[in-house]
Amino acid sequence: MRFLQWCLPRLGLRWPGFRRVRRTVCKRLGRRLEELGLERLEEYRAYLDRAPAEWARLDALCRIPVSRFARDHALFGWLAEVGCPDLARSAEAEGRSAVRAWSAGCASGEEPYTLAILWRVAVRAAVPGVDLELLATDADPTMIARAQEGCYQESSLRELPTSWREAGLAPREDGRLCVCPEIRDAVTLRRADLRAEMPAGPFDLILCRNVAFTYFGPWLQRRMTDRLRERLVDGGLLVVGAHEAPPGAEEAGLAPAAGGLPVYRALA
């Protein structure tokens, strides 16, 4: 625990966000020490001083990629019934042919593929002249590779409505379910670390859930609030995790937009 409290701020992260997942990180650290032939974390700390490149490896050990389809079904229900149709109608009124969305910290792709399926099932019929342009990014190249494969175990789909599953995925002989080509082609996947780079935007919808506002340090969280708002069109939506709140949201021009759901609207 003391080691994490020491190293996390140096990575732009914060200890409170890791309390529930510290065992996972500690197990990874233990395996890394074995690889290096070290016995104690004090030795690893000294090794970090001698080998600065090891900080990148440590950073990777601290990533917590937890994701599944339609995680927080109430949120995705609101997006299907209200949020995304409204964005599509606004784009149509402005003469635009697409709504631009960004899934930041997409892990192995469940979130952006859920959004692409949602659009196909719930939005296309209501506003047929507006498509979805969806960018998904993650800092972990392994996660991006899994997202590109687009095949998942049954357990990852337990919250996805049956009609959505049938519209977007097909079973494979090995027992996994894979996203259909149309859904896969709707998502552009790219490796990017939010702490270092962001796509320019502008976006109508940004999903940044259970990453920045859980694990990043306080000063970086506030910076993220401002930078995400800069990439949203006026009237656009920012979606965060169920137990998250962007610090300085009001000052940045973000206001709650969906009752008790973690959705913020960018004010003009």
Describe the structure.
- This protein is an alpha/beta fold.
- It has 2 domains: 2-61, no CATH class; 73-266, Vaccinia Virus protein VP39 (Rossmann fold, 3-Layer(aba) Sandwich).
- Helices cover 43% and strands 18% of the residues.
- The protein has 12 helices and 10 strands.
- A 7-stranded mixed sheet has the order 6-2-1-7-8-10-9, sandwiched between helices. A 3-stranded antiparallel sheet has the order 3-5-4.
What's the short story on this structure?
This protein is 43% helix and 18% strand. With 268 residues, the protein is of the alpha/beta class. The chain starts with a helix and ends with a strand.
Question: What topology emerges from the helices and strands here?
Answer:
Layout: H1 2-7, H2 22-36, H3 41-50, H4 54-61, H5 73-93, E1 98-104, H6 110-123, E2 131-138, H7 141-149, E3 151-152, H8 162-168, E4 169-171, E5 177-179, H9 181-185, E6 187-191, E7 203-207, H10 212-215, H11 218-230, E8 232-239, H12 249-252, E9 254-256, E10 263-266
Parallel strand pairs: 1-2, 1-7, 2-6, 7-8
Antiparallel strand pairs: 3-5, 4-5, 8-10, 9-10
Helix pairs in contact: 5-6, 6-8
**Topology pattern, helix = H, strand = E:** HHHHHEHEHEHEEHEEHHEHEE
CATH top-level class of the largest domain: Alpha Beta
Structural class: alpha/beta
Question: How many DSSP-defined strands?
Answer: 10
Q: Give the overall shape.
A: globular
Number of contiguous helices: 12
Evaluate the radius of gyration.
Answer: 20 Å
Strand residue content: 15-25%
Total number of domains: 2
Side-by-side strand order of the widest sheet: 6-2-1-7-8-10-9
Largest sheet: 7 strands, mixed
CATH architecture level-2 label of the largest domain:
3-Layer(aba) Sandwich
Measured as a percent range, the helix fraction is: 40-55%
Topology-level CATH name of the largest domain: Rossmann fold
CATH fourth-tier homologous superfamily of the largest domain: Vaccinia Virus protein VP39
Separation, N- and C-terminal Cα atoms? 44 Å
Indicate the low-confidence ranges by residue numbers. Answer: none
Oligomeric state of the chains present here: single chain
